[in-house]
Amino acid sequence: MNKNICCIGAGYIGGPTMAVIAEHCPDRTVMVVDINAERIAAWNSDQLPIYEPGLDDVVRRVRNRNLFFSTDIEAAIQSCDIIFVGVNTPTKMFGRGAGCASDLQYWEATARTIVKAANSNKIVVEKCTLPVRTAAAMEQILQEHPRYHFDVISNPEFLAEGSAIADLEHPDRVLIGGHQTPQGLAAIEAIVDIYAAWVPRERILATNVWSSELTKLVANAMLAQRVSSINSISALCEETGADIDEVARAMGMDGRIGAKFLKAGPGFGGSCFRKDILNLVYICESYGLKEVAEYWRQVVLINDYQQERLVGNMLLEMFNTVANKRIALFGFAFKANTGDTRESPAIRIARLLLDEHAQLAITDPKALAHAQGDLSDVADRVHFTTDPYEAAQGADAIVVLTDWAEYRTLDFARLYAGMRKPAFLFDARNMLDLAGLRAIGFHARGVGKGVAE
Ligand code: NAD
Ligand code: UGA
Asked: In angstroms, rounded to a whole number, what is the distance separating the alpha carbons of residues 431 and 437?
């Protein structure tokens, strides 16, 4: 077996993951391939297609050393014995399971390309997030090859955007699932060997293939469930005079509960939480587990509710109308330190405000290009600017939607001076000093901040 690796899919997962593998495994050639020529050209340029802290440096060190980006998918398949598949698996938007099931057409296309191009036995590694038991379907397609044998391994990725490089460098764990046969165990070992170059062995878990596939869906569902749980309680805080940050802190100090993923906000975004929970719901339904499906569906419903609630609160404060008022949205990315806006709460909140006939000014340090794409159909009612002061000029309200660190150090007195009065500020991330803002003159409000009496 040769040591070369290829990855089909040069997206948020394929690019950073392979760059870190290439850095730690200088004896392996790593090829990242994609059908999207524009994306590959960007990976080969100084302007990488995604923004991720630290990514530029890693790519600069290893690109054209042992990391290569190309559109020649068949050649890459032929040059290696280990093939990672990191293509997109979005929610299916048509036919059976529309709005819930995973759309597996991109994944299946890669399986067929592998069969067509293969010139030796291969290990095929599921890097993308897939419904449990997808490996069986992959094997069925691959088995059509008359000559070569294919082992399918599940190796889901747990990195979070904005901290991808740090997560890849120091993963909590690496999960590798395969069949518990001599051949399957050998394939698991071949993948363990890659990660063992920098990940301590005790953090590399080997399981059966179905456990690995399911763990990825469940890990995302559990994380999203914590966000929805705390957001649901933020509504109760506003009614009762409790403060959600105080509740989360005190609760999170219980070692059994833990402090992470208890920050109330505008709801979770990102390309995966929603799609993976809906996929889990669909899988449960397809096995007849209706109650289980409904339980997880609630996590998504609470997320939608939080965004509606936020806009409802704004309307209430602003005399029940925002028609023709300028509202400045601070942040459009789904979280800080990324330019990604997929499923960003900002998209839904912007559209709900536009439904109320507001005029929007949107600012974001990294995500404006995507924001313009997301709102292209309503572009005449939205002003885009990288300058928060320009966005707030003449505005009735500022809404902080992304937790960019730089928003903490803005000159709020200057922002206030440029706004129409009364000036409102809605801190949907609970990251600003509300008392300080009120002292300036803002009518300032956070999330889950009841009035204590
Ligand atoms: P992405 O859309 O950024 O990238 C996917 C890439 O695959 C695209 O560039 C697309 O052109 C390419 N592609 C599609 N079909 C292809 C084909 N037949 N041949 C070659 N290339 C093809 O998606 P992503 O965010 O990188 O996510 C990929 C997978 O990884 C998903 O299953 C996702 O759930 C999972 N994942 C993503 C993250 C994340 O942080 N984004 C984290 C963990 C897991
Ligand atoms: C998430 C998981 O954290 C990763 O482990 C997983 O690999 C990835 O999904 C995936 O499968 O794509 P990501 O979506 O990049 O990563 O970012 P998170 O940090 O999980 O944040 C998701 C959303 O939840 C963001 O909108 C964030 O602002 C929100 N969030 C998170 C909160 O509102 N409160 C919190 O306490 C934590």
From this structure: 12
Relative to the CA of 231, which ligand 2 atom is closest? 33
For the segment 195-212, what is each residue's pLDDT rounded down to a tens digit? Answer: 999 999 999 999 999 999
Q: How far apart are CA 131 and CA 125, in angstroms?
A: 14
Give the closest residue (by CA) to ligand 1 atom 14. Answer: 87
Q: Three-state SS for 173?
A: coil
Instruction: Return the best residue to mutate from 6, 7, 12, 107 for the ligand 1 pocket (most ligand atoms within 8 A of CB).
Output: 12
Dihedral, 16, 17, 21, 22 alpha carbons, nearest 10: -40
| Burial grade of 229 (CB within 10 A; 0-12, 13-18, 19 or more) | middle
| Average pLDDT in the chain | 96
> Whole-angstrom Cα distance, residue 283 to residue 281?
6
At residue 146, does pLDDT exceed 90? no
Ligand approaching nearest to the C-alpha of 269:
2
DSSP codes, 292-306: HHHHHHHHHHHHHHH
Tokens standing for 386? 């990288």
Whose tokens are 């805080």? That residue is: 237
Compute and round to an integer the Cα radius of gyration of the chain.
Answer: 24
Burial track 283-298 (b if 16+ CB lie within 10 A, e otherwise): bbbeeeeeeebeebbe
SS3 (DSSP) at 400? strand
Confidence of residue 159 (pLDDT cuts 50, 70, 90): very high
Helices 290-317 and 345-355, axial angle in degrees (round to 10): 50
Q: Residue 320 contacts by C-beta under 8 Å, 6 or more apart in sequence?
A: none
32 lines ligand 1 (CB under 6 A): no
What is the rounded CA–CA span in Å between residue 360 and residue 351?
10
With 0-12 / 13-18 / 19 or more C-beta atoms within 10 angstroms meaning exposed / middle / buried, residue 165 is: buried
| C-beta of residue 102 within 8 angstroms of C-beta of residue 275 | yes
Contact 23, 195 (CB under 8 A): no
Per-residue pLDDT of 100-110, as tens digits, reads: 999 999 999 99
